[in-house]
Design brief:
The protein is 34% helix and 22% strand. The chain has four domains: 93 residues, Rossmann fold, CATH 3.40.50; 68 residues, Dna Ligase, domain 1, CATH 3.30.1490; 239 residues, ATP-grasp fold, B domain (D-amino Acid Aminotransferase, Chain A, domain 1, 2-Layer Sandwich); 50 residues, no CATH class. By secondary structure, it is of the alpha+beta class. Strand 9 and strand 10 form a beta hairpin.
Length: 495
Amino acid sequence: MANRGEIAIRISRACRELGIEAIAVYSDVDQDAPHVRAADRAERIGPAVPAGSYLSTEALLEAARRSGAEAVHPGYGFLSEDAGFAQAVEAAGLVFIGPPAETMKALGNKLTARRTAVDAGVSVTPGLMVAVDDAVRADLDDLGYPLLVKAAAGGGGRGMRRVDAPAALAEALDAAAREARAAFGDGTLYVERLILGARHVEVQLLGDRDGGLAILGERECSVQRRHQKLVEESPAPGLSPKTRERLAADARRVAEAVPFHSAATVEFLVDSEQGHWFLEMNTRLQVEHGVTELVTGVDLVAWQIRVAAGERLPPDVLEARPLGHAIQVRIYAEDPWRAFHPAAGRIGAWRMPDGPGVRVDAGGEAGLDLPTEYDPLLAKLMVHAADRPHAVTRLRRALDETRIGGLPTTLGFHRWLVDQPAFIAGEYDTRLVPDLWGDGPAPSDDDLQLAATAVALARTSGGTPGWGAPPTGAGEPDGDRPWARLAREEAVERD
């Protein structure tokens, strides 16, 4: 498992159910991490800095050689969409558990992916089909504003800038190129029109090596900050049956245009009139794969492994259709009241929810010191219910049961979100976070005073105040809400 954190734990579980030995890798800072204990064995791969460990093809292949591994699962992030890594794995006589390197080459670069989609008869967002250079900058005004500058390589919102007027274009191009070079080693950029008020909807694919292809429904991913997802749900609310069919058909066209097997996702923008445009194809397992597993009953990770071993997808997978509704929230060690700035420190209180229809994929635990070198994702909290209203209610209950202490997290944001009318109605788009949350509702002086009492009492008793816990020995003010409680507890912990 060429990865860490919750996804390495998730892969370990799938391996155990299949009767396969799971071998973890770890950097020096991860020696005692939960994903190491979850595996059957573990191999050290280098220092904390990712370039010397989780991003080092040489270190990962050497660990595979020492351990006697037969296959490599890259998870998501790190080298999961690196065609060179996939080729190196195969060249070393190992099986790469993911789409072929040829698919990554064709679709991993966003410019190449746009051309592939157009050739397959799929609409793309209006924009350039070539990389930005000095010769084409003069043509950008013809596209109209606002524009979105994007890195051709990589993802996760890096190398991306919004441009509202021609005067801001040069600075945005320079800044995006610098960020893309630092993140992906490639500063190639392209430009497309920014579709305002659009929703981010993606279609899950699962294919075998014999041409079998399952379309496993779609996911709504529009709750984002800095172009990175915070909440995902399936099915996407508010889509007409015709739009849902068109998205599935276009996703199939893209997949059939390239050699494909394993799991991948085709991402689209959907506007207010339900017109849609291809964005990109992620040639890997997605962070949000769990919501599709909940509504379809298909174990995507297990089937990635089984397909890599040469198995065909059976009819029950090829014909699987979503049942009920699932929602996932990503719990990050980030401060939503400070522009979602990453947080560091030791996790104090840690209690995850359970009960009917609740699933948690977590990489955190009490007492864990969070490394600053890696993504701050702590856990993915998922719920499944018969329909969306019941799923939202179940998510609200699960969030109220969750406790994470010792550092700021996004729990307060999520608890705020599930009470917002736009989210409850399923009528939102990618503007929800910047328009409704902004910098976050500020706690009042009374909130902070109550929090000080709660923290002092917790420290006296040797405990750590947790999310949602009413202050001991102090009355809760009328109208106090769970997200406000979290705001005052975390504000005092920080200060």
